[in-house]
Structure formats: structure tokens, C-alpha cells
Queue: 2 jobs
Job 1
Amino acid sequence: MRNGEIVNPIEISDLRKYYGDVKAVDGIKFTVKAGEVFALLGPNGAGKTTTIEILEGLRRKDSGEVRVLGMDPWENGHDVHMRIGVIPQEFNFFEKTSPREAIRLYASLFNVKVDADEILREVLLEDKADTLFDSLSGGQKQKMGLALSLVNSPDLLFLDEPTTGLDPNARRAIWEVIRGLKAKGRTIVLTTHYLDEAQQLSDRVAIMDHGHIVAQGTSDEIIRQHGSGERLEINGSEGLADHIRSTTGLNVHYDSGVVAIALHKKDDALTALQAAKSSNMDWGDIRTKRDSLDDVFVRLVSGIVDESGELRVR
Ligand code: ATP
């Protein structure tokens, strides 16, 4: 609370961090609200780690405003550390230590009393409580990292690429844990290179590129704002594309054997198919497509944002 007002767990505005000529973070602004999962996405070198390290109080900003749980994380490093949980990229631990022992060790470092079994249940690792770290699978090791990040009952969790390198089943198991943490009201900041993971888990997403935020909002909002909308795709020739365009007036693009028709109105798909039929030309598979967060991400970070909202076929 700040003067009786509820403070968002994270508030950043005009944050900058330069390393010499490299503008790692170049004037970004975002807010993370209590209880939400917020995903920070971007290609390698976009500035995500620098941003997260500033939030965790590990790196000093050059300028701008940063508030974590109402505090400046650099000036109030100790207080912030006591109230956040962090799981770093590729979590590692002493090989001959079990999850239960590790939790007890962390609890003594934080000087808190914890119920190790309850934490292990929360991360779905109770059956491996006494297995040594070097005998855990990749996914179980990550769960142990999650368990340790919960020892100090944090208000805010930072999960840095929590499923990198895991097989699809192990990734899903971690997703289940993260959903459980969210259901308990924890605020989570997630970085990931898996766009489907961000789409599955997060309430809101910020996409960074070259130190800037290039899109921010729910996945659906970002797709609606930067995507090319729904389209009908027909495997066919350029001649077929010309025919559909000239007889219907629809927005038709052709690329590499695919005729793509932008669907704006309810009847557009039917109109296009009737035109295709009347052409007496051959065509193959037909499908409707809508951009995923992945499609939009690729366009945004490669600088081919579709500002006009017109259809583009990649
Ligand atoms: P990744 O997905 O690869 O982890 P990232 O989005 O986390 O990338 P950062 O690690 O924040 O990006 O790096 C942003 C830019 O700052 C990059 O150009 C990087 O080379 C540079 N950079 C990061 N740390 C330092 C440093 N300590 N000294 C100099 N340059 C740095």
C-alpha cells in the first residue's frame, strides 16, 4: 500500500539501460498487475534479461522509474529480495541434495519456517521429495527450482525461460504448476522463447525488440492489432487468384502456389469459393487461417509489421 492506494507489483516507465553504444533497454514502459501472469517476449538480445535483472535489483538502471512491490529494487535490494521468488535460466543445484533438503536449506537462509511437503505438493514434486538432484529429470529439476522460489512465500515470481530444453510432456507439467501458482493469486513475470507457452499461460504479453516494446496487451489484442485477420487459403495458380480477384473484387494475394483471400464479411469465403468454381481451373486443399501469436511475433521483430492491416501472405 502507498498512501492507502494499492500498488501494482511492477511499474516501469521510461526505463533505460545502455552498455556503451548498445541500447539494451531504450525507454520502456509497462505495468504488471497483482495476480496476473505477464510474459516478456523477444528475440535474443532484445533486452529482456537486462530488464528482469533491473527488476530483481541485480542491475542498476541508467534512468527512468522502476517500482517493484512499491520499492526501488536497487535502493531497497534486501527488502525486494525477501519478497520475490526467482528461478533463473537452467536452474542448477548441488548434485547430492534432495528437494526436501534444499527447501530446508533455503528456509534457514531466509530464516523462515516452512512446510516442505506443502511446497513440494504445490509444484507437483512430492513423489521425488527425497531423490537426489542428479537423479531428477530435467522437468523435475525445474520443479525443484520452482519449489525453492516459493520458500520465502513471495508476492512476485520471476520465471526465466522455465521450460527451455524440456520435452513436451515435461513442459506441460511445468505449465500445470504455473497455472496452480496463478490460481493461488501469485503474480508471475515469465520470459520465454515459446510463443505457445506465453499464449497458454499469460494474461498479458509485452514483445521487446532492440530495447523497445513493440507490442503489448493480451495475446488476442496483439493478434488483432498486428495480425492480418482471418483468410481463406486455396492451393491454386496465379491465374486462379486473378480470376477470383477480378470477378469478386475481394482482396486476393498469391504466393508460391497459395491463393489467399482476406475475409472481412460473412459471405466472403462463399463468394470466393463460387468464383473459384466458376473459373473451371484446378485447385487443391482449402483452409481458413488466422494468425497465431507466433506469426505476429515473427513479423513484429523482423520489422515487417502490417501497418495497413492489409492481408500479407508469407
Ligand atoms: P536473450 O534472449 O538472448 O537472453 P535478452 O533479450 O535477454 O536476450 P539482454 O541479455 O538483455 O537481451 O541483452 C540486450 C543487449 O545488451 C544485447 O545486445 C547484449 O549483447 C547487450 N548486453 C547485455 N549484457 C551486457 C553487458 N553486461 N555488457 C555489454 N553488453 C551487454
Note: The radius of gyration is 24 Å.
Job 2
Amino acid sequence: MRLFSLLSLATAVALSPVVASAQTSAPFEAISPEAQVAKMGAGINVIGGYDAWWDGGETKFSLSDFDKIRAAGFSTVRIPLFTFKHLDKDGHLDADYFKRIDQVVDAALANGLTVILDEHDFETCAKDADACATSLSNVWYELSAHFKAAPNSVIFELLNEPNGQVDDKIWNSWLVDLLAIVRETNPERNVIIGPTHWNSRNDLPLLQLPENDRHIIVTFHYYDPFHFTHQGASWADPETQKLSGIRWQGKPEEVAAINADFDKVAEWSKASNRPIFLGEFGAYDKFGKLEDRALWTRTVSESAHKHGFATAYWYWDGGFGVYDAEKKVWVRPILDALIPK
Ligand code: BGC
């Protein structure tokens, strides 16, 4: 299936009134993806679509948390958006939702943070690629038009972790068409795109990016060894769900495995001439010991930065959290692992 066939539909429905863009005060200036990755440095994922904040519900998040994130030493935030449920029947994102996105983007930019708008409806897409194609094209018409005047520190990520029905054949075709949508209004904004199988580094060789588009940053996610980072996680495969007591103690072979994985990513990056953003990595706290999680986090973060990748830790609060939003304190061992003193 080609998303292309849906473009005329998307064009027809997406002639929304362009709401005043966030942060138009600083004009857009093109920046190379390499320079952008260098500037992004260490980041975190925050205020995900899962959060009640997006629907005006009760939440532990407040916009002033961006001050704390910056003060702690992070320079980038990745915002996982569930946009599909905010599309009306004509393919427009509702005004209330745009208002909330603007508040988030403005607060992040006011703190000098790079802000990534990450489309995170990957589970819906995995199950129904046809429906996803229409929604995704409408969403990118809307977001691109809305943010066309935003400074270059606003970056678009087309789709988190394509998987299931969104295989490499479909994804390679969609990404060309989605980029075409974005480029109509944002010819030089950097766009983040990752490979299939949940942004697996193993699928990097399958990714086919348009050669003439030089404003692309490539992303991958890293949760290896998965039986350590996801032990006891209810959303993992049945075997991993049942695991507990798995340790990660930084043995030479454990560290070497991470370095070897990142060496391969860096080789691909060099050969393909595309800089890298490690957009998610983290270890879940249900059965993972804090000292092991902190050591793994430090090892992954250090190795990623040594390899020249920008990073974003998964996640701000909750089970992977670098922040305890209940007590309003940082989880020191994880923060120190991410932002070494
Ligand atoms: C998913 C989260 C999950 C995390 C780690 C993310 O991409 O959206 O639900 O907790 O990966 O598994």
C-alpha cells in the first residue's frame, strides 16, 4: 500500500486555518542535522501522550518542570504525542489540542531546550496500516503548517517505532510521502526518522531515505539486554513478563556488547552520512535494582555520546523515571548517570 494514494485526500481535508505558530519570535534558520545532533546532547522523554495533561485531567506534570529539566543539565526534550485521537472527521487537529502543544513547545523553548514532536501512535499503526496512513498524513499536514515558522530547535519525528503491519516496504514508501508533506511548509527543518521493528538498529540497513533530503536525523532505540531492562514489564512478551532478579553489573563482556552494538550503528551512520539520535533507552524498576539500572544507564549514555549520538532517556517519571514526580525530586543515581558531574 502507498500512502501516496491518500495524499489527495489529505490535501483536501487539511486546509485548516493556520493558527499562530508557537515561538515565532526567533526566526527559523536552517541548521545541518550534524550540528543539530551536537547541540541536542543529552535529553529526556517527557509529557507523553499517556499523560492526563493532554486532556486537561489531573497530572503530576507542570510546565515549570521544563525549568527543572534544563537546570538539571538536559538540553533536549522528546514529547511523545498521541495525535490521532485529536483529529476530527475532516482531518484537523482540534484547537484545544494545539493550544496545549503550543504551551509545551513555548515552555521548552523558553528554557533553551530543543523540542522533538514525536508522533507516538505506533501501536495503532502496527495493527491497522491503512487507517494509520490517512491519520499520519493529516497529522503531518497540520503540525507542519502550524510550526512552519518555529525556530530550528523544534524538530519533527514522523513515527515512533514502526512495527507490525508497518514493515520496511511500507515504511520506506510512507516516509517519502510524509517528508513531501512536511517539506511543503518546512523545506529545511530537521526531521527524525527511524527504522522498522521498533526502531531497531538491526533494521538500519533496510531504511531507504531520499538521497537529496539532507535534513534528516536517524533514530534508534536501545533496551538491550531486554530481559534486564524489561524484566516484569506487563507490556513485554510473556516470557519477559515473568522474569525477575536479572542483574546487570557492568562486567567487561556486558559493556563490550553495548560498545559493539553502537560501533555498528556508528559505522552505518558514517557510511550513510546521517547523524544519529538515540531516542529511547532505559531500564524498568519493577524488579531491576536501582544500582544496576543506574550503571547500565551510565554505560549506555556514555557510550552513545562517545559515538557522537544525541540521546533522550526513557522516561521522566514512573517506572523508568529519572524524576519522582510524586515527591518532586530527581532520582539521583539515574540523573547522575545521565548528566555526569
Ligand atoms: C513506549 C512505552 C514503553 C517504552 C519502553 C515506549 O516507546 O511508548 O509505552 O514503556 O517504550 O518499553
Note: The longest strand covers residues 216-222.
